[in-house]
Amino acid sequence: EKVSERxxxxxxxxxxxxxxDHYIASIRRYIKPNLEIPTLEEFGHALYGLSxxxxxxxxxxxxxxxxxxxxxxxxxxxxxxxxxxxxxxxxGIIYFPSELLDMxxxxxxxxxxxxxxxxxxxxxxxxxxxxxxxPFLRQSAEPxxxxxxxxxxxxxxxxxxxxxxxxxxxxxxNVFETNGYNSNSFSRNYWEAVRNRFTPDV
Length: 202
Fold this sequence. Notes:
By secondary structure, this protein is mostly helical. Helix content is 66%, strand content 0%.
């Protein structure tokens, strides 16, 4: 029995069950060792399945912007992947699509070394993701990102979350770029930046 069918049988009516099934299927498909994503197109599907669907079912998600909320979730997963690239690669979970690796002549078996000792190929691949793929991905979230939240009836929780997400994406990108896409340096400096941001002055 699908999880969505059980919830529906038990009377949970606030959930879009097809979206829930998509989310669960994506977890099973994309969070596992020896993962291989063939194309950039499927990479986009994975980002949406793992997080776009989840965002669409968050409490008080604005139904008027449902597609854009899914796009925002995809963007969020994109930045999560960047933040966690060292941990994922070490576990054999490689989100870089084969098509992308081929474009920059990077072998899957090189990634463990390249994430901590990036060469020109790896740097150019990361720059492609941030400078060309990220804007493409952001387009689907644009109706939500460009909305003036002060003039809408968005729930307060979503207004807070939107501001927090924009700040987090900028922090991930800035630390990655300033550390030359070195995942070891990124992890150390990123979490230090987070602590400094959220630790109150004494």
